[in-house]
């Protein structure tokens, strides 16, 4: 009888030990999973404080007499080059009806690329060498909606330049943030007419729109190194490109197809962080520079920005 009791007690002890080991193992396993669960502080609202503000890609391109000079195939090609960007500023749109039609056709082609695009065209500029500007933009990106709030030709300096800048204020709204950006698209006079005499007046734009986060972009016909840009630099603007040639030669020179540092994007540092600044060497798609220049004598430039 005593042997049976001892046997029963031994079996009970072994069973209890096994159960305890299993429970301990399960608890350890559950503890190993916990680091995957966000741990919120007592005053947390559940939002990730490390999420950055919305990122946006903005491109600028002088499209060389954009209008009748571009056929349907060329406009389709341009659309394919632009489809991956969010807002596009175009300089040198023809003042004729053909210019308006070309921008509309470009927007139509962009709408065939998988995103919805809208466009706005300026009135003709007021001075010599009249032209129009245009903006085309996606109505929404993967994470945000883009809305044009207002656009205008900048009258405050129209008497000081031949082609006053085309301004546009956009609102970029994501689920967690709402930001605005004021763009100024500008095409200065040719080098033979001293573009530095116009560029010096661009500093009046941030002086006037003090509460906006501003980008001033386009074809300045002038290197960013020139002292004419000092006024912008003193107001915390930085050139996105340093030493980047953007105009196309007629023919290769020493193997180089690019000629002058004419195009740039000046970014107001208080509002943005530049993540990328790159150019598109579209001429490589063509057999010769002559063929490429039917598209443009400038290459497009673009920046990817974070709002601060």
Automatic annotation (TrEMBL):
<feature type="region of interest" description="Disordered">
    <location>
        <begin position="25"/>
        <end position="48"/>
    </location>
</feature>
<dbReference type="GO" id="GO:0004536">
    <property type="term" value="F:DNA nuclease activity"/>
</dbReference>
<keyword id="KW-0540">Nuclease</keyword>
<dbReference type="InterPro" id="IPR005135">
    <property type="entry name" value="Endo/exonuclease/phosphatase"/>
</dbReference>
<keyword id="KW-0378">Hydrolase</keyword>
<dbReference type="InterPro" id="IPR016202">
    <property type="entry name" value="DNase_I"/>
</dbReference>
<feature type="compositionally biased region" description="Polar residues">
    <location>
        <begin position="33"/>
        <end position="43"/>
    </location>
</feature>
<dbReference type="Pfam" id="PF03372">
    <property type="entry name" value="Exo_endo_phos"/>
</dbReference>
<keyword id="KW-0732">Signal</keyword>
<feature type="domain" description="Endonuclease/exonuclease/phosphatase">
    <location>
        <begin position="59"/>
        <end position="298"/>
    </location>
</feature>
<feature type="signal peptide">
    <location>
        <begin position="1"/>
        <end position="18"/>
    </location>
</feature>
<comment type="similarity">
    <text>Belongs to the DNase I family.</text>
</comment>
<dbReference type="InterPro" id="IPR036691">
    <property type="entry name" value="Endo/exonu/phosph_ase_sf"/>
</dbReference>
<dbReference type="GO" id="GO:0006308">
    <property type="term" value="P:DNA catabolic process"/>
</dbReference>
<dbReference type="GO" id="GO:0016787">
    <property type="term" value="F:hydrolase activity"/>
</dbReference>
<protein>
    <submittedName>
        <fullName>Metal-dependent hydrolase</fullName>
    </submittedName>
</protein>
């Amino acid at each position: 009888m005593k042997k049976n009791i001892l046997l029963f007690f031994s079996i009970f002890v072994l069973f209890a030990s096994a159960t305890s080991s299993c429970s301990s193992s399960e608890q350890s396993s559950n503890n190993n999973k916990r680091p995957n669960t966000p741990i919120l502080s007592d005053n947390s609202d559940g939002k990730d404080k490390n999420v950055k503000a919305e990122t946006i890609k903005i491109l600028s391109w002088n499209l060389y007499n954009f209008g009748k000079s571009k056929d349907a195939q060329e406009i389709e090609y341009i659309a394919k080059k632009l489809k991956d960007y969010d807002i596009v500023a175009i300089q040198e749109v023809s003042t004729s009806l053909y210019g308006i039609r070309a921008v509309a056709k470009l927007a139509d082609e962009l709408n065939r690329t998988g995103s919805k695009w809208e466009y706005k065209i300026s009135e003709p500029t007021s001075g010599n060498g009249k032209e129009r500007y245009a903006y085309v933009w996606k109505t929404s990106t993967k994470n945000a909606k883009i809305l044009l709030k207002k656009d205008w030709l900048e009258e405050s300096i129209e008497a000081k330049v031949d082609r006053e800048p085309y301004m546009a204020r956009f609102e970029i709204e994501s689920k967690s943030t709402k930001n605005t950006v004021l763009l100024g698209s500008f095409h200065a006079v040719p080098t033979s007419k001293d573009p530095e005499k116009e560029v010096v007046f661009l500093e009046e734009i941030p002086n006037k729109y003090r509460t906006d986060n501003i980008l001033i972009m386009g074809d300045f016909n002038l290197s960013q190194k020139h002292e004419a840009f000092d006024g912008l630099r003193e107001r915390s603007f930085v050139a996105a490109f340093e030493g980047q040639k953007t105009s196309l030669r007629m023919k290769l020179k020493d193997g180089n197809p690019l000629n002058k540092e004419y195009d740039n994007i000046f970014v107001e540092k208080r509002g943005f962080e530049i993540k990328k600044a790159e150019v598109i060497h579209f001429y490589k798609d063509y057999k010769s520079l002559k063929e490429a220049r039917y598209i443009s004598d400038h290459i497009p430039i673009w920046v990817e920005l974070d709002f601060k």
